[in-house]
């Protein structure tokens, strides 16, 4: 089974949401439809980054890193400096 670490960007406020799932397309649809409680008020997400893992624990470790101060800084630098967004 594959596990996806994903980063979504809200079209409403440009904030990022970081999560892990085993069904990426279904999870994005849940976020965009308002079915996900934590992002219900920021509907309208664009997938801007994802990584694939074959070990669930590795995916959650990466999520924890990206949600840390250093990880979030690293992610923003890598994405926005590269994409010029």
Q: What is the gyration radius calculated from CA atoms?
A: 13 Å
Number of helices: 3
| First-to-last CA distance | 33 Å
Query: What count of structural domains?
Result: 1
Q: What would you say this structure looks like, in words?
A:
- The chain is an alpha+beta fold.
- The protein contains three helices and three strands; from the N terminus they run ββαβαα.
- 16% of the residues are buried.
- Strand 1 (3-10) and strand 2 (16-21) form a beta hairpin.
- The protein has a three-stranded antiparallel beta sheet.
- The protein has one domain: GIY-YIG endonuclease.
Short structural description:
By secondary structure, the protein is an alpha+beta fold.
Labels describing this entry:
single chain, 85 residues, alpha+beta, GIY-YIG endonuclease, 3-stranded antiparallel β-sheet, 3 strands, 44% helix
């Amino acid at each position: 089974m594959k596990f996806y670490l994903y980063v979504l960007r809200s079209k409403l406020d440009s904030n990022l949401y970081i999560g892990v799932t085993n069904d990426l397309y279904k999870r994005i649809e849940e976020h965009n439809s308002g079915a996900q409680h934590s992002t219900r008020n920021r509907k309208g997400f664009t997938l801007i980054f994802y990584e694939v893992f074959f070990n669930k624990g590795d995916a959650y470790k990466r999520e924890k890193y990206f949600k840390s101060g250093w990880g979030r800084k690293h992610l923003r630098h890598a994405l926005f400096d590269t994409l010029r967004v």
